[in-house]
Hints:
Number of strands: 32
Structural class: mainly beta
Radius of gyration: 23 Å
CATH class of the largest domain: Mainly Beta
Distance between the termini: 36 Å
Shape: globular
Bound molecules: beta-D-fructofuranose
CATH architecture of the largest domain: 5 Propeller
Amino acid sequence: MQDPHHRFIRTPRFLSALLFAALTVSVTACATPSESLSAGDTGTSQWRSALHYTPQRNWMNDPNGLVYYKGLYHLFYQYNPNGNFWGDMSWGHATSPDLVHWNEQPVAMYANEIEEIFSGSIVVDTHNTSGLGPANSSPLIALYTSVYKAGSGHAPGTQAQSLAYSTDDGQTWHKYSRNPVLTLDPESNNFRDPKVSWYAPGGYWLMTTVVADAHVVKMYRSDNLIDWAFLSDFSLRGIPHQGTLWEMPDLFPLPLDGDSRHQKWVMLVNVNPWSIAGGSGAMYFVGDFDGRTFTPEHVAPTGSDPSQYQWLDHGADYYAAGTFANAPDGIALTIGWMSNWDYADRIPTTPWKGAMALPRALALKTIDGMPRLTFAPVEQYASLVRERPATRIKELAVWSTAKALDPSTKGIVQNIDVTISPRSAQRAGLIVRGSASGDLGTRIFYDTTSQTLTLDRSKSGETNFSSAFSKQHIVNLPLENGKLHLTVVVDRNSVEVFADNGRAVITDLIFPAPADNRMSVFADHGEAMFSDIVVTNLSSDKPGTRPSRWRAVTGAASAD
Length: 560
Ligand code: FRU
């Protein structure tokens, strides 16, 4: 489904950022930098994610510098240290031993009088090719976008790629003395988001970046992460939507159907707006990369709408997704920002704004004769679910009605597994975070006529903080043997639906009342069968609490 709200044009945001940057100089001198809370006030803790990373306070957008290093997953991210709105872009930082329990760390790199720090990536420079670590060490190298300010020696707003390095496992970062390491000629205000990886067949570093408003991914190579040589451009003939920005590219190999001899390359391009669910979303292409050029297979014909492209997620809240460098066993792990530029600055959470979606493992499978990505919550999350007691319902037939499930299924942070056989029903599905009256709740249902899966958040709680907060997200999904398996991850502020063994995902933010903790199933105009229902509660209903294992692992830096 395409949301009608495509009004967001980024240029004003960057302009307003510049204006904001000019203003903050005077504002920070006389005001508390972030939304201040009086003692005991926890802000909107009813919406503080239990399973998803949120910073304690202030604004967060894209995941940056995703890297696994010495037993820890590092998540850096676009962060405003000075407020609960986009601006003063810096790199926040969190670490996790398992991708589920996160520790917020000190801000890694601050915006300063010269530059703001936009998105980028980190690699482990295993053989110290940069020469920036001590002999025989493996420094961490970040490539990020410098957005230059007046007086920097670049025209204000210029975007270029810069380098920073850490020799203490990511705790402190030193900017390279001869930044930027890569800029366009002439310089551009839209050249950003470097994603670096090691291209093993060629034995060199590979960088993908974008010229966002030109809808082009630019690829470069380097032997030392400092000197970069142009390789090629990737773009589409007949750009689908002229006003769209291309952001946060990523290019990585995956075995097709688990066969390591049959490898394909996946190009992620985050686009805003023009996503499948409206606003911002993560598109992908599968093809070949020969060390210089990426050649996609099956590109949708010119004039196609978003439904003819491939998407990482069909919900409204999955953007700026990228993969982890150095992931164990070479698996492809992603994190996406769980929001949408259409309304990200309007969401009613305080004193923070922004959460990350659940980390996912990607695989490439042949589906309907085409190589397609599939998505699963990471194994560490799945094992957390398996460890906890659950309510199990073997079979439940429902005829033209809604049925509340056993009170033991009540919860606001939960994992739900269910197989739906819609049979004669026109629609069949479940309602999560439902109210006692049955009037409110987030509906996830299959429509047998249109053969689609829908997430409907029109009655999910607060929805009217922005007219761009789209209400329904739909994906085409023919049934296999008349059945559909769903894994639904419900948190205080979100719903993620993994359908049909990860063939499609719908990720949406919701803002329900904490008391709305009921679960029910329903069938419209006919009979549906629900089988193997497993509902696992992952946290108590008390606002602000984490799953029981959380506190022990995260200690003091837990977000609540
Ligand atoms: C994507 C993005 C990036 C940019 C960053 C700025 O959401 O616009 O292109 O680097 O956010 O915060």
